[in-house]
């Protein structure tokens, strides 16, 4: 696999073009500001009544209604929550002239058929591999964030060049761009969210904390051990890789990890990971996401309430009152 770097990318496919950024949230704000600072003509399309409208105007951007924004844009990036993309696309489609391009930062809605773009449109994906806040701060520091780029539909014959130019304008070429597909990006992303970093890791921190507290360790000490140290681990892995992280910790910690890790992450874990991957690939998770949207996020709201009220959070507040 080749990483495409900044100096290999032609900026011309985007020069003199107008980009509409629809949705001014986590990705929308960062992408709009990076594009603007790269000299691209940007307009923000934001629904009426949104608190993001004054924010975008304070950032110096022009804000209009989404339909108006896409009407004279060459490329419209649709950056609202994935489960709301089908309704947004239905609203925007009549305003998209033939031959225009639409783009996404996640492959889910297109890959799983939540929406089917008109055949005359170019359909791109530019997916920075991290949150918008980091995309923006890296850009401002003269650095960049790795991004995956893909083309779902190439009506013009110029879709790939446009996607690469867009990724370059985001600053991603400074770090490297990987050519992927909507399927590969969304399957790997959804799998990780559920089975690894965002799903399994927080739950294992909680299970560790509960185990120590049930054995009589104070809630604060258990928190420092089982939750706070994750930041140290992440920093070491980022700086040195997994192998370097293991060499950097004490012999005691390294031996403990070598003996304990495989007892926790056994074949059963791998089997359940494979089951999660299958449910991602089959679209079962995407169905769940749409059901959650239709219930006005009942499950998510309940879980957030439970997390906030948990004794683990109370221990954190006692340890870090201003955090
Ligand atoms: N967050 C990340 O770290 C990340 C990383 C890579 C890719 N992505 C992808 O980037 C895309 C955008 O995600 P995000 O996290 O940036 O979203 P987000 O922060 O939740 O963005 C919300 C924005 O979308 C608007 N919005 C919400 N519902 C809407 C609707 N029904 N109709 C029109 N506008 C609506 C919001 O407007 P209001 O102010 O009116 O609510 C707000 O401007 C998704 O495809 C996501 O998978 C996200």
UniProtKB/TrEMBL annotation:
It comes from the Bacteria. GO terms for cellular component: cytosol. The keyword Secreted does not apply. Mg(2+) 1 binds at residues 189, 193. Keywords: Amino-acid biosynthesis, Branched-chain amino acid biosynthesis, Isomerase, Magnesium, Metal-binding, Oxidoreductase. Pathway: Amino-acid biosynthesis; L-valine biosynthesis; L-valine from pyruvate: step 2/4; Amino-acid biosynthesis; L-isoleucine biosynthesis; L-isoleucine from 2-oxobutanoate: step 2/4. InterPro entries: 6-PGluconate_DH-like_C_sf, KARI, KARI_C, KARI_N, NAD(P)-bd_dom_sf. Mg(2+) 2 binds at residues 189, 225, 229. Pfam families: KARI_C, KARI_N. It is an enzyme of class 1 (oxidoreductase). Residues 181-323 form the KARI C-terminal knotted domain. Its EC number is 1.1.1.86. GO terms for molecular function: isomerase activity; ketol-acid reductoisomerase activity; metal ion binding. One of its GO terms (biological process) is L-valine biosynthetic process. It catalyses: (2R)-2,3-dihydroxy-3-methylbutanoate + NADP(+) = (2S)-2-acetolactate + NADPH + H(+). SUPFAM superfamilies: 6-phosphogluconate dehydrogenase C-terminal domain-like, NAD(P)-binding Rossmann-fold domains. Transmembrane segments: none annotated. Coiled coil: none annotated. Residues 1-180 form the KARI N-terminal Rossmann domain. Substrate binds at residue 250. NCBIfam families: ilvC, PRK05479.1. Belongs to the ketol-acid reductoisomerase family. This is Ketol-acid reductoisomerase. The lineage of its organism: Bacteria, Pseudomonadati, Pseudomonadota, Alphaproteobacteria, Sphingomonadales.
